[in-house]
């Protein structure tokens, strides 16, 4: 049996792959005729071609014949053959038309001028890029989803860009007026001009005969040497018309719910098909149609094959535009006449507009629009047509953290690939999947536009928790060990470099998780300066520049102020440095002073002044001891019973520079009144009449925890010995980024066991722990002083390697309350990758 | 990977004639770290991987709007050479600029090569 497929776009590719997978008996011989000069590629991601992305879909097997650069020009239904532009006549038993669509270019004067393009294929983009070189202005006709994407893309080619939209607001097919108005602000914020609500009159040429401007009906003109049409699509149904198959009034090859045309041997799928009176312009429905036809082709020979039909599709969409979150789902236009209610939320300052459309009892979600913050898109879309888990207004305020476990099984999670919650759950259980990449590979969910990935992750987490599966302790894909296990490997095998460790005990070349973790282990074991040799490449940017990265790419500087005690002279130095370098100053919670807004090339100059005045690095940038806070203690305070300041200074100087799995904080109070808040610290000390009480594993922050009382009435030396051992034991056994609080909570045997280890030496390791701390104390030297003395390391502190004196021009400030504050060029997308 | 480092270079965009800009000496690059260079007024992050490959990417982290990608940590993900933005830790494919954590995001790439002991970036 011979199957001929015309067109090699996403729909054709999916059809052939689905057939290859299911046609195990090899009933069909497949020939594909594609007009583009290349095989199928991911058109959804077309824009990334300009950034050098490789969009090609994986090739079919050798048994599939694929012709490129060859167009089908006629179908002879009686003879069952297709004639091609190469003059070939290809016979078929079944013919599938997957010819997609072409951009609609309105019949406007000047549309054929040089410089006018469409935005559909790789060749289109190459032509636009080549033509744009050396030109300065461009505009896109059409303010829909694709038009905005195209406008941003030509802006990326260095053109001043804008969009011309005849409707009164942008994305009129998806957004209501309020959403459109908010979107306009975002688009303009990205530096693109928006001309909405006025039809176009004509395109005008310049002196060189190429297009130079778009003239609007109101007489205004928009300068554009590059014009891209993105004003809708037209199904490519010319082959069907040519052989007498019915097509729709506005185009599209008429097919039934199995995607079959009037001629039982001919099918149509994808954007060229008119199914149920609709042409679908999104890839998800195109894939579904391909799947249906693959099954039908097999069904004729294997009656057990699925007889699924195409049931229409979800038209939810999300704009793929950097810096602007826009999404619409379900039916955002349902109005009061159908009994629907709209709930809207607008935050003009943050540029957020959200609207939910619900049934009149406010229980069923019908649709909605999100502009400026589309984080809840995946979750909300999944609820369309179903019962909302909460009041609509609660859902709008981000209370949409659906547990993943609660979603009904039939809910479509990935609408691009039509994957339901149930399919994902079955795959997780059946294939023992434990991570998102596994779920993606197995179900295809999240592999097209990616907007459902957070939801997939939540379903995965819910399933794993429900199944009682312990999530792997492996540090990352490069090491199958936990941090504590790696620590032992490094210690016992005396490993001195990341290269050695990853080659002997890992795979690949590391990542931003394992590299800093290994760097910290090497540093804790006393293997040299954190910026020496290969170690330099392991550190994250904070440790690399010995300063804290802030949101605009500048750094902050925190000199150490042991115990919070500082002389007036040194205070003045800090003030002078801040003034001379124009830094923002703020007192920290740890009794020190933070100086913000330094560019990398300023860091050495700033530190030269600070080091000359006797300051040292405060390690605010490192997973290391931060500060030992103190109250003023018995020297001044009427109630104090011990010199808390002296003890705090002694502790801070002892543990400064100690690298740990996470930051370490401490405090010393001079009496039980506890003014230094020692019980919220990793190790806290409170004076008693007879000595010191030691508290361990406290925490402020997100999950506050009161420290546990570990030992009472200790002498100075006992206190220090216990803290030494506590810290070294923690460093040796904790997980990556595990604070002492959660480490102690997870420690088998808890506080009692910790006492046995530290006080009774039950494991026989105290001598080792003591020796390790002695090595640390002896080896300490100030990282900033070392750096200033090393010309090689200093050379890193430039913004530009080829223009060392040039400051980064993208860093700008404004003034607020008499100090600087960062000015960010693009509204940042919030939310870090959590790993 | 067997070709000597001196002959390796990232591919140029097809069709376009490449103008090379001298950026620094080969020795100025630390393996598995980046530097930032100004190329025709644009900030370009240049990286040297541990096996000697050069990659050049737009320095702008699209998620934060800050020009910081050159200060990220290099590594691999499933064999793909990567850099992790130091800001919110999004990971980008060094070869294509695509964000592996958010397929809708990417940064531009530039051709880069070692030429007579110098590092050059093309446009
Ligand atoms: C810039 C851009 C961004 C997009 N973003 C999204 C998105 O975020 N989400 C989404 O869901 N969708 C998106 N889409 C739409 C999506 O790409 C289409 O829905 C999808 O490509 C349709 O697939 P298809 O195979 O039906 O048609 P097409 O991709 O158009 O493929 C048809 C192929 O057939 C060839 N052909 C036509 N006639 C003949 C002939 N007579 N002989 C031989 N070959 C022929 C064509 O040249 C073409 O290669 C986007 C589209 C573009 C252009
Ligand atoms: S903790 Fe005690 S010693 Fe310290 S300041 Fe408060 S009252 Fe005074």
Write the layout of secondary structure elements.
The complex is a heterodimer of chains A (835) and B (123).
Chain A: E1 2-6, H1 10-22, E2 29-33, E3 65-67, E4 72-76, E5 81-84, E6 89-91, E7 94-97, E8 101-103, E9 116-118, H2 122-132, E10 138-141, H3 145-156, E11 162-165, H4 177-189, E12 193-196, E13 200-205, E14 211-216, E15 221-223, E16 226-229, E17 233-235, H5 238-242, E18 253-255, E19 266-268, E20 273-275, H6 283-299, E21 317-318, E22 326-330, E23 341-347, E24 352-358, E25 365-371, H7 377-383, H8 392-396, E26 412-414, E27 419-420, H9 421-430, H10 436-443, H11 453-466, H12 483-492, H13 498-505, H14 514-524, H15 541-545, E28 548-549, E29 555-557, H16 568-581, E30 584-587, E31 593-598, H17 603-612, E32 625-630, H18 644-655, E33 664-669, E34 683-688, E35 691-696, E36 708-714, H19 716-733, H20 740-746, H21 750-758, H22 766-779, H23 783-788, H24 791-794, E37 812-816, E38 819-823
Parallel strand pairs in A: 1-2, 1-7, 2-3, 7-19, 9-16, 10-11, 10-16, 11-12, 18-20, 32-33, 33-34
Antiparallel strand pairs in A: 4-5, 5-6, 8-17, 13-14, 14-15, 21-22, 22-25, 23-24, 24-25, 26-27, 28-29, 29-31, 30-31, 34-35, 35-36, 37-38
Chain B: E1 20-25, E2 34-39, E3 42-48, E4 54-58, E5 73-77, E6 80-84, E7 91-93, E8 109-110, E9 112-115, E10 118-122
Antiparallel strand pairs in B: 1-10, 2-3, 3-4, 4-8, 5-6, 6-7, 9-10
Bound molecules: flavin-adenine dinucleotide and iron/sulfur cluster (SF4).
């Amino acid at each position: 049996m011979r199957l001929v497929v015309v067109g090699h776009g996403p729909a054709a590719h999916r059809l052939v792959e689905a057939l290859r997978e299911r046609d195990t008996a090899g009933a069909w011989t497949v020939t594909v005729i594609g007009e583009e000069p290349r095989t199928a590629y991911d058109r959804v991601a077309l824009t990334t071609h300009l950034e050098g992305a490789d969009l090609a879909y994986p090739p079919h097997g050798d048994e599939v014949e694929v012709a490129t650069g060859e167009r089908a020009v006629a179908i002879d239904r009686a003879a069952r053959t297709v004639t091609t532009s190469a003059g070939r006549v290809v016979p078929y038993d079944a013919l599938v038309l997957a010819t997609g669509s072409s951009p609609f270019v309105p019949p406007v004067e000047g549309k054929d001028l040089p410089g006018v393009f469409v935005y559909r294929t790789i060749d289109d983009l190459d032509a636009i890029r080549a033509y744009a070189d050396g030109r300065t202005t461009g505009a896109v006709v059409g303010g829909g989803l694709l038009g905005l994407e195209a406008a941003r893309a030509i802006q990326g080619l260095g053109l001043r860009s804008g969009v011309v939209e005849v409707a009164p607001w942008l994305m009129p097919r998806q957004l209501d007026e309020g959403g459109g108005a908010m979107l306009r602000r975002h688009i303009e914020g990205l530096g693109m001009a928006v001309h909405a609500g006025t039809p176009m009159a004509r395109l005008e040429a310049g002196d060189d005969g190429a297009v130079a401007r778009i003239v609007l009906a109101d007489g205004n003109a928009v300068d554009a040497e590059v014009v891209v049409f993105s004003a809708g699509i037209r199904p490519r149904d010319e082959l069907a018309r040519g052989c007498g198959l019915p097509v729709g009034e506005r185009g599209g090859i008429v097919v039934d719910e199995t995607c079959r045309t009037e001629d039982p041997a001919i099918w149509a799928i994808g954007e060229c098909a008119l199914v149920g009176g609709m042409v679908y312009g999104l890839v998800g429905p195109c894939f579904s149609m391909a799947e249906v036809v693959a099954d039908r082709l097999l069904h004729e020979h294997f009656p057990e094959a699925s007889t699924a039909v195409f049931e229409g599709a979800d038209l939810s969409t999300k704009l793929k535009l950097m810096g602007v979150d826009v999404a619409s789902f379900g039916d955002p236009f349902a109005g009061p006449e159908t009994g629907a209610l709209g709930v809207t939320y607008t935050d003009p300052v943050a540029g957020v507009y959200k609207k939910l459309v619900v049934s009149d009892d406010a229980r069923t979600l019908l649709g909605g629009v999100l502009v400026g913050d589309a984080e809840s898109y995946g979750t909300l879309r999944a609820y369309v047509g179903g019962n909302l888990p909460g009041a609509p207004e609660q859902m709008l305020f981000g209370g949409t953290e659906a547990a993943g476990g609660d979603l009904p099984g039939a809910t479509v999670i990935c609408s691009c690939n039509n994957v339901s919650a149930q399919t994902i759950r079955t795959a997780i259980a059946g294939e023992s999947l434990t991570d998102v990449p596994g779920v993606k590979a197995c179900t295809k969910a999240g592999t097209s536009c990616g907007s459902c990935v957070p939801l997939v992750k939540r379903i995965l987490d819910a399933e794993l928790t429900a199944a009682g599966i312990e999530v792997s302790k492996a540090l990352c894909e490069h090491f199958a060990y936990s941090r504590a296990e790696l620590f032992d490997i490094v210690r016992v095998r005396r490993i001195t470099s990341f290269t050695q460790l990853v080659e002997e005990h890992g795979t690949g070349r590391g990542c931003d998780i394992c590299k800093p973790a290994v760097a910290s282990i090497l540093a804790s074991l006393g293997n040299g300066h954190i910026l020496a040799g290969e170690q330099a490449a392991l550190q994250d940017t904070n440790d690399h520049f010995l300063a804290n990265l802030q949101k605009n790419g500048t750094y902050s500087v925190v000199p150490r102020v042991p115990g919070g005690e500082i002389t007036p002279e040194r205070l003045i130095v800090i003030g002078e440095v801040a003034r001379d370098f124009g830094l923002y100053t703020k007192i920290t919670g740890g009794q020190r002073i933070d100086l913000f807004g330094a560019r990398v090339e300023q860091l050495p100059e700033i530190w030269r002044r600070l080091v000359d005045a006797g300051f040292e690095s405060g390690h605010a940038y490192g997973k290391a001891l931060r500060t030992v806070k103190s109250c003023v203690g018995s020297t001044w305070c009427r109630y104090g019973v011990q010199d808390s300041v002296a003890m705090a200074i002694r502790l801070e100087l002892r543990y400064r520079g100690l690298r740990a799995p996470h930051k370490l904080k401490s405090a010393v109070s001079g009496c039980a009144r506890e003014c230094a808040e020692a019980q919220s610290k990793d190790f806290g000390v409170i004076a008693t009449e007879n000595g010191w009480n030691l508290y361990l594993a406290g925490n402020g922050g997100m999950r506050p925890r009161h420290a546990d009382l570990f030992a009472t009435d200790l002498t100075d030396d006992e206190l220090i010995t216990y803290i030494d051992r506590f810290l070294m034991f923690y460093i040796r056994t904790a997980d990556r980024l595990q604070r002492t609080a959660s480490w102690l909570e997870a420690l088998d045997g808890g506080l009692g066991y910790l006492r046995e280890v530290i006080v009774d030496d039950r494991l026989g390791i105290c001598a080792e722990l003591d020796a390790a701390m002695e090595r640390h104390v002896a080896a300490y030297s100030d990282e900033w002083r070392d750096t200033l003395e090393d010309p090689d390391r200093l050379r890193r502190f430039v913004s530009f390697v080829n223009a060392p004196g040039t400051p980064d021009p993208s860093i700008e400030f404004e003034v607020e309350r008499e100090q600087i504050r960062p000015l960010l060029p693009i509204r940042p997308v919030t939310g870090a990758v959590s790993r | 990977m067997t070709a000597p480092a001196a002959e390796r270079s990232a591919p140029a965009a097809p069709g376009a004639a490449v103008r090379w800009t001298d950026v620094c000496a080969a020795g100025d690059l630390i393996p598995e770290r980046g530097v930032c260079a100004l190329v025709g007024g644009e900030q370009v992050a240049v990286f040297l991987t541990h096996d000697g490959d050069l990659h050049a990417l737009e320095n702008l982290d699209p998620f934060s709007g800050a020009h910081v990608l050159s200060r990220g940590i290099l590594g691999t993900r499933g064999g793909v050479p990567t850099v992790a933005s130091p800001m919110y830790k999004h990971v980008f494919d060094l070869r294509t600029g695509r964000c592996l954590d958010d397929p809708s995001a990417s940064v531009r790439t530039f051709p880069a090569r070692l030429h007579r002991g110098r590092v050059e970036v093309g446009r």
